[in-house]
Design brief:
single chain; about 25% helix; globular; alpha/beta; 3 domains
Length: about 375
């Protein structure tokens, strides 16, 4: 075994995870590559070609790099572990009128758990992924911090990681920009890899059409919810819609016509199959409640301190005060209005570059 240790590297076949494996290999770690099959898109009835981390092409790309560099590579089928939890939650959240982020749920409950389980089985001390974020350790406590590339920083999606997970995780890309990673792949002779496009799709919705995915997954859903009402904040009926699960907070397109001013989805009421529409300023809120939270840098919140709170990926964040309520929720009070807060999405609180805590938005 290498003096630096044995690392299980999650390899999707994309540029970030591939460079992660090659970088650690050059640094003297003993590498074991693993590609996790999370979803079989053909079984969902989608119309487009399977793409992303679960495609055969991606799996073959990951294996080819391992063969060329001379380290072991394994393909692990975690579709059963993945599907029952992540996909069922994805469907259930939309049916509950919320907007889920399945990638965060997967990181928290599936991928890291699967990686640590296989790392132990393969005698690997560490696991590594191609995320653009840092792991810091202060006073024996681990926490996520932002990577140096603000356009690629992924600290927001990692708030759910436990102390055990962070203690054994390596993020080699934390101190590099995406352009530097592409150049690195090119310099190593992997020109095609260096030009590989980004993938922003949910792995089990490769056509990026969550509405059709819901209809395929729950065939009776469309018929049961169609014909609901669009209303304004006063309850005045403005028209009919296709069913509340097929709309998200802040949505402007696909609402029909006949409005004097641009209208947006400002609220979703699943109990009455009602979508509330309003003008842009009606999306502005100054407070929210967060549940299922996980502490990182700190183990409690200081109500007098100003944190920067992000309510979506690539959100610049807004200064806020936060405290844990008697009902074990985080109450966040923003110092400036925030647009389009969506229950079901994640909220992440920062102290400078460091993640303090994160959780699921419960309500505005």
């Amino acid at each position: 075994m290498s003096k630096k240790g044995r690392v299980l590297v999650a390899m999707s076949g994309g540029i970030d995870s591939t460079v992660t494996a090659m970088m650690l290999h050059e640094q003297g770690y003993e590498i074991v590559g693993i590609t996790m099959k999370t979803w079989d898109y053909a079984s969902s009835g989608g119309s487009k070609k399977e793409t992303g981390c679960c495609s055969l092409d991606s799996i073959n790309d990951a294996r080819q790099i391992a063969v060329e560099k001379g380290f072991h590579h394994f393909i692990v089928d975690i579709r059963e572990e993945f599907g029952d939890y992540v996909i069922d939650n994805f469907v259930d959240e939309y049916i509950a009128g919320r907007t889920p982020n399945p990638c965060i749920l997967c990181n928290t409950h599936i991928k890291w758990s699967a990686l640590l389980k296989r790392a132990d089985a393969m005698d690997c001390e560490f696991i590594a992924t191609g995320h653009y974020a840092k792991i810091k350790n202060s006073g024996g406590r681990y926490y996520i911090s932002k990577g140096i590339d603000p356009r690629k920083d992924q600290s927001y999606v990692l708030w759910g990681l436990s102390q055990e997970c962070m203690a054994r995780t390596i993020f080699p890309l934390a101190d590099y920009t995406k352009e530097e990673i592409r150049q690195m792949a090119f310099d190593w002779g992997y020109e095609a890899l260096s030009k590989k496009p980004e993938s922003y799709e949910i792995c089990f919705v490769p056509d990026n059409d969550y509405r059709n995915f819901l209809k395929r997954r729950v065939p009776e859903l469309e018929e049961s919810v169609k014909g609901g009402q669009f209303v304004n904040a006063s309850g005045e009926v403005l028209g009919t819609h296709d069913g509340y699960p097929f709309y998200t907070i802040g949505q402007r397109k696909g609402l029909g016509g006949g409005f004097d001013t641009p209208m947006y989805v400002t609220d979703i009421k699943p109990e009455t199959n009602t979508i509330v529409l309003g003008q842009s300023d009606e999306l502005l809120k100054n407070a929210m409640y967060v549940g299922d939270f996980n502490f990182h840098k700190e183990t409690q919140l200081d109500p007098t301190k100003e944190y920067v709170t992000m309510v979506r990926y690539n959100d610049p964040g807004v200064l806020s005060n936060a405290r844990v309520t008697d009902h074990s929720e985080i109450k966040v009070d923003f110092l400036a209005n925030v647009r389009g807060i969506a229950p079901g999405q994640s909220a992440v609180l920062y102290d400078g570059e460091d993640v303090v805590a994160g959780g699921i938005i419960l309500r505005k």
